Structure formats: structure tokens, C-alpha cells
Amino acid sequence: MSVQVSLTNRQQHVLWATVRHYIATAEPVGSKVLAQEYDLSFSPATIRACMGVLEKSGLLYQPHTSAGRIPSDSGYRIYVDQLITPSETMGRQVEHLLADSLKLEESNFEVLLRDAAQILSTLSGYIALITMPQTRTMRLRHLQLVPIQPGRVMLIVVTDGYQTQSVLMELTQSEKEEVEGEIVEHELQILSNFLNSKLRGRSLGEIAILDWSELDREFVQYADFLKNLLSELTRPIRTPVATPILIRGISEVLRQPEFSELQQVKMLLHLLEEEQDLLWPTIFESPEELNPKRRVKVRIGAENSLAPMRTCTLVSATYKQDEIPVGSVGILGPTRMLYENAIALVEATADYLTVALSQVA
Hints:
The chain is of the alpha+beta class. It is built from 16 helices and ten strands. The protein folds into three domains: 9-83, Winged helix-like DNA-binding domain superfamily/Winged helix DNA-binding domain (Arc Repressor Mutant, subunit A); 88-134 and 241-360, Beta-Lactamase (2-Layer Sandwich); 140-238, Enolase-like, domain 1 (2-Layer Sandwich).
């Protein structure tokens, strides 16, 4: 989600200061306090006027008639998208801590993820959520193309664990007209041999990103067929299955004033502990799918589709294997979050797990 509001430099400074004050204190703030605590280089009257404009724009609001202002979800969105950059210091800190604390050669990947979640929770002060990886290490042992009837071919796949899968491939009408008389058993065997020579020993993740634009001359006529075959072969890669979510830091974040209402806490705990199947798609959704330039996804307040999370912010990023997203790292906390640190922590942890997974796979 993006908020389209044009702000002057002064209004941006006032919004930045208001958000920073509220993050630090959880208390509404007025113009006099901002003038005293932040070097804004203009008078309380100017600050008050700027706050009035920001309130009319829906970026600030008054929780009580006599109180100062606090940021709205839209105010936080402007703050995240336009007014801050992730903390390089915090990013380096988590990188060093992960590298010093986690021993790849001594742990399996699940143990490493659990330890990483604990480190992430401790550094951020929020709930850390890390999904177990999708199965991407399964490797192709053998495949066979078998003609079933004109226009239909059975693809049989055997993986390194001797698991067998079969897919019935339907050719389009145009493909049937082109190959019905050509793709016979003998030629399918030749094509099977070619594919085995190219794909044997590769993981499904690797196969998913292969480029078939340059084929041996004798197989150019099968380019469209191979494209469809590859699509069928890697379908499990493109249809993620929910994996367990490792959760750390619940007790710490629930001490925040935003979670003082018992019913709200119960709803959030029920979601985290009993409804992970609902939570998983939100965490695993790749930020690149929403915005190719953004590696870290930030969902603020009402941007979250699940009701128990609508007073929270979820910061998440995927970690990868063979350039394919296989799991996700997230931080869940109140919207009154120190976003500079949270974004840097999530991004650095996702990068570390991507490298770690390549070493233990």
C-alpha cells in the first residue's frame, strides 16, 4: 500500500518528529514538546499549523480532544516509504551476531532457524516469525516421456529419494497438429534421453529457472513442448505448501501498552498458536511480487488482512535457495515500531539464511 500525499519539507519534518516521539514514549505530542525536543528550526506556531495540515490529510489524529497528536497508519506509511532509511548499524550488528552465534557445521537447518528467531526477537524486542523452508532440495534422478494417445503424453519423474510422480500432459490443438505424427515412441525416447542428460542431478529449484531459449538444433522443434513440460515439472515449486512457523518473543512484546486489552491479546495469541495456516500466506508472500524494487515488505495496521493483526505491523522478507523463495523471516510488533531497525534486522537475517541454506543443503 502507498499513500499519495504531497508534503512540504516542514510538514515532513514535523511528521518525522511526531512519529519518532510517539515511538519513544507511546504518548500523544503537541507542538511545544516537538519544538523543545527536536531541532526543527521553526516556531511552535508553525509546527502547530503543520500538524493541523497533517491531521486534515489523515496522517495524524487526536486520540482525545485535549490530547496532542499521534500517527495514523497512513502517517506511518509515509514515514516508512519516504522519511527513513534502514539502519546500516543494526544490519551489521545482526549479521555479526548470527555469524558468531550460529555454527553451520554443528547444526541442522531447523536448529539454526530456531536460534536465528531467538536472536531476531532479542535484538528487535518484537515477535520473530521464521517459516521452515519449502522442500527445494529434492533432485531429479530420472524422467521418462511415454505416449498415451495422440496429443497426450505421460511424464514420469523419479527423484533422488526414489519418489515417483506422474503428470498427464495435454497438448494444445495447434501442438497436436504439429507433433501428432512426429512425437512417436522412438522420438519421445530420444527426447527423454536429452532431458535426462540436461536435468539429472539438478534440484527442482534449479530446474525452475532453466533457460530453454537455446536448444540443440535437433530439438528446436520441441521448444514449446519443452516449455510446457518444464512448467508441469516445476509446478510444486510455484505452489508453496504451508510449513511450520517458528515463533519467539511473545512475552516481551505483549508488555507493550498497545496490548493491554485482554481480548486483543487472546485473538493475537490464538492466531499465532492455533491458526498458523491463516498466518503463513501473509508472512510468506514475496515482497518482490508486490514491488520488484522492494526486498522487505511492511504491512502496517489495517493493511493486514487478518483482524488480530490490524493494530500491528508485520515486517517480512523471503530467504531463498537457487534464487527461489523457500521461506520467510518476519517481525511482528505494534505499529509504534522502530522501523529503521526492524527493516534492517529482517533484511540482514533473510540474507544470512539464504547463504546458510546454500551451505547446508
